[in-house]
Structure formats: structure tokens, C-alpha cells
Design a protein that fits this description.
- The structure is a single chain.
- Helix content is 52%, strand content 0%.
- The protein is an all-alpha fold.
- The chain has a single domain, classed as Up-down Bundle (Four Helix Bundle (Hemerythrin (Met), subunit A)).
- Helix 1 runs parallel beside helix 5 and helix 3 runs antiparallel to helix 5.
Length: 166
């Protein structure tokens, strides 16, 4: 089971890699969407990284993380806290972060206890269901970005069914 979960995470991350690599510069920073392309990519990778951890306390954010940038606006638990998106991450930075996520997911899924609690108070699932939840979240945003690439630049992203893609 660990092998299959790892394969599906890595397949989704390979699709995210394609999305990031194929995105034209003007679309990467396009502010005509509520959440620019780069920000959606960062959000998806942040949560893939976070929820791969055994528990919240074990999470060490990426060294380039900016506070609250994982959210798409002010967080519900501190709605009055100032929120600013700031400068975009570059595609190279996102690819670096993606590689960190690939390594963390490979490491953490190999140690997965499927019956253990999620490790996150706000997610009342066991570890196995959390993996499905996390992969679905990641793929939701990959699909969103694939649609943007196609609609705005005519760029297609190939399907990765499993990793490695045989």
C-alpha cells in the first residue's frame, strides 16, 4: 500500500512539474485571476508538504515560506491580521520546492501507519484517508492550472497515471 500511495503522490507532483515548467512568464504572474498562477502552485505544494508530515508539530516550512502565503487571503482564524501576497515566487523556486515535496512524500509515506489519526486537529481522518484527501487537494489545483494553461495559452499537460509512468 505504501508503494501505491507514494506512486500516486509522485504522479500528481510530476503533473505539477509539467504545469510549472510549461507556464509562460506572462501567465505565471497574471493578476487577472483572484489568485495568480504562481500562488495556486505554491498553495498546492505547501499543503502537499504539510499533510505529508506525521503531525502538525513535525512540519518545518520551506525556507522561503512567507507567513500566511499558503492561504488565498486573510485566514479565518485571524481575519484582521494584515495579509499581503507580495512578490511572486519564480518558476525555478517552485520547482525547487516541488523537489522538497517529492522527497518528503517519499520519506513520510514509507513510514505511514494508515490507522493512526491524521495528526492535524482540524482534519478528523485517519492517516490513510488523509493521503487521499491530500492527493485530491493537490490534483484539484493541478487541474485548475491545467485549465488555465489550455484556455489562455493553448498548452496541454500530459496525464501521469502512476510514477514512474510505465
Amino acid at each position: 500500500m505504501h508503494k501505491e500511495i507514494t506512486s500516486q503522490y509522485l504522479a500528481a507532483l510530476e503533473m505539477m512539474k509539467q504545469v510549472i515548467e510549461k507556464c509562460p512568464d506572462d501567465l505565471w504572474q497574471d493578476a487577472s485571476h483572484a489568485n495568480p498562477f504562481w500562488h495556486v502552485a505554491y498553495h498546492a505544494l505547501f499543503y502537499a508538504h504539510l499533510y505529508a508530515q506525521p503531525e502538525e508539530a513535525a512540519f518545518v516550512p520551506w525556507e522561503k515560506h512567507r507567513p500566511n502565503l499558503n492561504a488565498f487571503g486573510p485566514t479565518p482564524w485571524v481575519p484582521d491580521e494584515p495579509w499581503e501576497r507580495g512578490e511572486p515566487y519564480s518558476q525555478a523556486e517552485m520547482l525547487d520546492y516541488l523537489a522538497i515535496c517529492q522527497n518528503e512524500i517519499t520519506k513520510q509515506t514509507s513510514q505511514l501507519n494508515p490507522e493512526a489519526p491524521s495528526g492535524f486537529d482540524w482534519i478528523p481522518l485517519n492517516k490513510l484517508e488523509l493521503q487521499f484527501y491530500n492527493i485530491r487537494h493537490l490534483q484539484l489545483h493541478i487541474g485548475e492550472l491545467c485549465e488555465r494553461l489550455w484556455a489562455e495559452a493553448g498548452i496541454e499537460v500530459g496525464w501521469v497515471g502512476k510514477f514512474p509512468n510505465d
